[in-house]
Amino acid sequence: MTTESTERIPLLPDVQRFVDRSHRLLIDGAWVDSASGQTFESVDPSTGERLATVAFAGERDVDRAVDAARRSLSGPWGAIGPADRERILHRLADLMEEHADELAQLESLDNGKPLAFARLVDVDLSISHFRYYAGWPRKIAGQVLPVSVPDMHCHTRLEPVGVCAQIVPWNFPLLMAAWKVAPALAAGCAVILKPAEQTPLTALRLGELALEAGVPAGVLNVLSGDGTTGAALVRHLDVDKIAFTGSTEVGREIGAIAGRNLKRVTLELGGKSPNVILPDADPAAATRGAFEAIYFNSGQSCTAGSRLFVQRDQYDDVVSALADTARATVPGPGLAPDTFLGPVISEGQRARVLEYVNAGTAEGAELVAGGSAVSGPGYFVEPTVFSATSDDLTIAREEIFGPVVVALPYDDLDEVIERANATRYGLAAGIWTTDLRAAHRFADKVRAGSIYINCWQPSDAAAPFGGVKDSGVGREHGYEGLSQYLESKTVWTNLGADNA
């Protein structure tokens, strides 16, 4: 298979100017070179060619950014009232909306995802997150406690955690930044945002818009770099809270360091999500849902429906229909107008996906569709369908993070619930059915942070998101997400006569 030779949508002039210039670090309200002068290249995964040159932050830059964030908390940001935090967040959302098409093109270029998805999902949901959390600053309140101690007034205050290191992945770069930055700023924290080295551009543009919106110097710092930059942030003793989205393996290391240093930590990690089709479901709708659950964002989603369970009597028909749709789906560049399936993020990620494909065939799974790299420039992989009979295969157990689904037959609901839970992950699970009792039994018994019934991965800033088991610690979105950036302080006041 080769990619379609579809003409790309031309870049907006502002996007072209942005990618053509060298990019610096945002520290203490100023754009500065890295202390070492080191840079790296961001690559367009649709072509494999250099996209932009970006500063590489080292330990000295981390020190500068953390110091700037700490000083901002004792400066204007620490003294600013909740109404002003609300105003700034709304202004930032307004600016993102004004530049939405520009942000979408930058995301599509840097990540490879289809432009329509970048605009309607990544950018629009990012704006929604800033608008949602802009409504919180004047609603953050402690409470008066009915304590039993005589002549005592006891109340709590909710205060910002402090300096937050936020490390975001390359699959949804702008959206993951919004998930973290918006609640942190609403709570009054200061942030050092570290985007993935593969996709730094929208984080840097977000930093520019934040300054324009009136975010004070030092409150939002943006450090581009690789894992060593993130590690320096995680180890830094003056960072109060770490928020990380990424692999379970790296999350374990971050959690261990945070535990030793007694830091607050939120971890949104990997998944191997089961997607179950019951025999009473509309087979066409369920198959279409299964297709979108795995191939959206080229399978590069922690909630991808990568384990597809189909009741044995319908199994062959569903797998055949899914494979036919996969074969008819031709990968293409994100800026081509008709692309549904873009490239994977890098040459290394493509090699990783193909290693899993080879492992699947070597272990006896049937390769029904796809399974190969796409010839031509860029890092494209065919949408791939495996049929298997064992949950013990590598491709059925491990997170592939690519456009590969493993279909597995089952016989009854109790069996598939048990098999759905037989994984170290617990991020998401879905079921397609018209039987409400079966749907709610599934939702009750399956251990996962999110359950999707007759849908896959809807998202809203108000709805908590996160996982259990190896899929993470803590929640993002909603008040639960905001609470990760707040500390409770208890205040006792003696009202006795002798102290009047």
Automatic annotation (TrEMBL):
Pfam families, A to Z: Aldedh
Domain of life, per lineage: Bacteria
Gene3D superfamilies, sorted: Aldehyde Dehydrogenase, Chain A, domain 1, Aldehyde Dehydrogenase, Chain A, domain 2
Enzyme Commission number(s) of this protein: 1.2.1.39
GO molecular function: phenylacetaldehyde dehydrogenase (NAD+) activity
InterPro entries the record matches: Ald_DH/histidinol_DH (IPR016161), Ald_DH_C (IPR016163), Ald_DH_CS_CYS (IPR016160), Ald_DH_CS_GLU (IPR029510), Ald_DH_N (IPR016162), Aldehyde_DH_dom (IPR015590)
Keyword Oxidoreductase: yes
Active site per UniProt: E268
SUPFAM superfamilies: ALDH-like
Keywords: Oxidoreductase
Aldehyde dehydrogenase domain sequence ranges: 31-491
Similarity comment: family membership: Belongs to the aldehyde dehydrogenase family.
Protein name: Phenylacetaldehyde dehydrogenase
Gene, per the UniProt record: styD_1
